[in-house]
Amino acid sequence: MPRELAPAVCRVCEGNVHEFLDLGRQPLSDAFRAPDDDTEEFFYRLAVGQCEKCTMVQLTEEVPRERMFHQDYPYHSSGSSVMRAHFADVARRFLATELSGPEAFIVEMGCNDGVMLGTIREAGVRHLGFEPSGAVAEAARAVGVRVRTAFFEDSTAAQVRAEEGPAQVVYAANTMCHIPYPDSIFRGVDALLAPDGVFVFEDPYLGDVVAKTSFDQIYDEHFFLFSAHSVQTMAAHHGFELVDVERLPVHGGEVRYTLARAGRRTPTPAVAALLAEEDAAGLSRLETLRGFAADVMRIRDDLVALLRRLRAEGARVVAYGATAKSATVTNFCDIGPELVSFVSDSTPAKQHRVTPGKHIPVRPPAAFRDPYPDYALLFAWNHADEIMANEQEFRRSGGKWISYVPTVRVS
Q: What is the C-alpha to C-alpha distance for residues 270 and 391, in angstroms, rounded to an integer?
């Protein structure tokens, strides 16, 4: 059960936010450091609660955005073939619908390395990405994508509107949930968007997090966990309307939300259907989320017990995927190099460093295969199909995978 604390204030409606899960003292999830770096590490308390008025699930403490999104931010969206295909499909859908006119213009907040806007550029459609993290913004420019190295907010959006005119689409993927100041975002969208334009964003879905007990979706960058109910309320609070929703399989389960100015478009039947589904699951009730928190505690206990038993038996365990969300798992469960020898990851910027907080070494994929471990703890579980296809030899060698979503199991 969460500690009895004074409620936090909701970042959407200023209602009381009641904490239901405390994941303890956590580092920045992407702060991979050199093994000999002995400078003081930044930690904060990672706790999550629900607003009693608008039902928005959110962190109770904010990490300053400059600490998370900076010049050396290591995540590149194009690193996964699944995500490359996903964003190419997103771009093609926009090109066939919202961006079919001669004055078409799309703006993406958090465009990362330009994986989606690259397809827009190839089609000759006017575009602009906002990306505050310098290195990935440069990667987008290298493939011809127009990028502003800045945060999207009301002031920067107004500048773009004055310089380039209205946008038919404002889009964000795995970005809107990062931003604890939705009032500024909506003012920016309102300033930039054409009268009949759409604001489209896709992010991890609270319903999937609860159903799968995927507690590692909660970390510093994920300030909000959206549901259809909370997005509908947030949109209305800012003069917008939720007009479409689409469930997505990527990143462990997401929803794509389409918003328009109130009264401009007729909501699709999918909106009412998802709202009804959430009502049936009790997703807006604090009791449901407290039950989720109890399940998280069981997973922690089961995972630590398994890893300790394997260590006692002399088995060699490594982890697969130095993901941002793995910081939540290792620090909440107190998993360090004594239980997991190293983490295998294909991202050069993370290799030969150590994980945030617990300082597990990160090594390139060649280390995973020479020799194969007895067990591999799958941190990158949201890319399981892609990983299993690439690592068939591991299983043929006798290796076994350890998963913890939705329960701890060995396969």
A: 37
Closest by Cα among 233, 270, 319, 259 to 52 = 233
Pair 264, 207: CB distance under 8 Å: no
Using omega within 30 degrees of 0 as the cis cutoff, is the peptide bond preceding 269 cis?
no
Does residue 37 form part of some domain?
A: no
DSSP track, 232-300 = HHHHHHTTEEEEEEEEE-GGGSEEEEEEEETTSSPPPHHHHHHHHHHHHHTTT-HHHHHHHHHHHHHHH
Measured CA to CA in angstroms, residue 37 lies from 8, 32, 71, 227 at distances of: 35, 10, 18, 40
Q: Does a structural domain hold residue 233?
A: yes
Residue 211 sits in a domain whose CATH number is 3.40.50.150
Asked whether 375 and 314 are in contact (CB, 8 A), the reply is no
C-alpha to C-alpha distance for 154 and 159, rounded to whole angstroms: 9
Which residues form the domain of 270?
A: 77-287
In terms of Cα–Cα distance, which of 271, 90, 73, 107 is closest to 185? 107
* 12: pLDDT strictly greater than 80: yes
Q: What is the pLDDT of residues 19-42, one digit of tens each?
A: 999 999 999 998 999 999 999 999
The total domain count for the chain is 1
| Residue 139 domain-assigned (yes or no) | yes
Global pTM reads 0.93
In a domain, 403, yes or no: no
Cβ neighbors of 34 (< 8 A, separation 6 or more) are 352, 353, 354
**pLDDT tens column, 253-308:** 999 999 999 999 999 999 999 999 999 999 999 999 999 999 999 999 999 999 99
Give CA torsion, residues 32, 33, 35, 36, to 10 deg: -170
Cβ(179)–Cβ(223) below 8 Å? yes
